[in-house]
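As a warm-up, study this chain.
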Amino acid sequence: MTAKASLDAIKHLARGHAEEQILTDLALGQETRFASPTSIRSSFLRSLFTNPDTSQLITLSGLRLDNLRLDSHLDLRGVRGGGIVRLRRVSTEFDMRLDHSDFQTIVFEACRARVLNLSSSSISGSLFVRGWEDRDSSFLKIECPGAQIERHLELSDVSVGPTEDRDFDADTSRRRVGDKSDLDRFVAAPPTVELDQSTIGGSLFIIDSLIRGGLQAPDVSIGRNINIIGADIDARPKAPAVDLIRSRVEGAVFIHDPMFAFDAADHTNGRTSTRLGGQLDLGGSRIGGWIRLQGLEVEAHSDPSAPAGISIQGATVGGGIDTFRTAVAGSVDISGSSIGSDVNCDYLDISAVTGFTRDGTKTRVSADPDAERRTGDDIERRDLGHDGVFNAARARIAGVLRWDPTLVGNEDRIVDLTDSRLGALSYAYPSSWPSTIRLTNVGFDRIHADHVRFRRPSLAGWATSRLAWDQDARPDLPVLGGLHDFVYAGNESHLSMIEKHADAVGHDRALYEGVAAALAGQGRTSDARTVLVAGHNAGNRANGWSRVVLGLPYRVFAGNGYHPGRSLLWAAAVVVLGTLIFSNAFENGDLEPTDTAAVVQPFNAFVFSADTLLPIVDLHQADNFEATGEGWSLTRIYIWFQIVIGWVIASTLGATAANFVRRVRST
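Now compare it with the structure written out below.
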């Protein structure tokens, strides 16, 4: 059919010059563009999709309209449009209804309406709602629950929700005109962007858009990624700003400042941050890739009852979680989640009053008008159990959990890893740690120090480069082995982390043993022994100072049973000291032979010192000689001192042997 024949068949649909021009361009396969806003009938647009002749033309060449004003609702409910539909600068004071319809690809550019409704629609291509040039698309509400979109859904340069001259009525959600003070009434309206139970085969993009009323997308299924870049999203009371609970995302979730976007120059209009005026909720979701929250500001809602912070509770994440330079006025909850890689909390500020700018300075985050004047203990909390907490209880993290460097360590911040399982626990940058760490029943395979592994990094580097020593090859010779342990002694910041946990919940012997086991598994046996010794000392302190005093000999002479060689060194030192003292005493006449000796031997200061120190063993010197004079002379006092020391050392060796047997049986 020729263009003229096609036009003759459909020209009866038009009323007025503008509608005739649209029919002419449709027959020629051209875009219809008007220089100024031109009014047409909404019913005329519907007839283009319901008339067999015009619908066939749309299927073949699409429909492209620019700069139109509709007289009423755009009602395309239930229509079937096979081609690409592009509406640019099309506006109506009413709704655009495309629900239960079937399209190939729809593009709205700089369009304005009350409600854009694509509920339960089917789109074999993509849905784009964009601004154009310097003009945003503007709607009070976008509804897409149950939509089936085979490729992408993009909201770019879109303003959704009440503005200064357009608002929802609190009861009927109908349009009304009011002054700026009436904007507060929009909070009683439904969410302004609804994607409940929709299916998107490609990616969801929300770029450089303003959404007042929240994004509600529970149970959404997305074949690729979620990208929220440079957006500003405000929540309704008692609801999250972004609700993605139970969502299924095959790719990754990116919510970040435009500076982190690879194509920021193409998709943003200079917005310097991504802001959520309420909670980000990904609870129960299944994410195939990473969750990257970079340069994000999550503010507290003005309603104290509204949820705050970031919730990824009970989610399954195939990749990891990255919160670089993210400021959260509330808490971060990943409890019960399964994370396939690392959790990086670099520069994460929890319960933040201020956030980060690109140059590292701070900018306002909290919605509380008095928050800038209150810090630390002065910050009023709605719930101590939720505000200012990084909650990873019962989480399973396959990689490393690290928070370095970060502001999570500000006053009153809490990290809770109770009953969690980690691939590795990072302990670098102790100054950045929170004031409270809970590690009850936490499990991990290794201890990870990102930046400082050795307690003496300069000496370790010198020994490696100049002496060609290997940090993992400990010499067998005891003296060199001890020197090797000294040079390559590990960073003991993990002990400080355990002590922080003890400050919160009390002594935890299992935690010391878990850290030691992880270090031993990494070949750091010396560091593992140091942890076990510290754990024994901490247990004594937890049981009172009497236990500390009674356990002091065991600690000094045997390193709490983990350094048995120390007892032999002490014994050798005492024998040598006794040799010098007893040799001098014999020469001065302070030692003399006894009359009751069973075996008579000449005096030997070294053997006499050893015989005095060693219990049970009889070298026939201690019985042959005694201190002269009556009473407690210095020589007699030292003899008894050395006898007591000998029994103490023997007891510590016995206790060490018993502990060794116990540990062998337990393993």
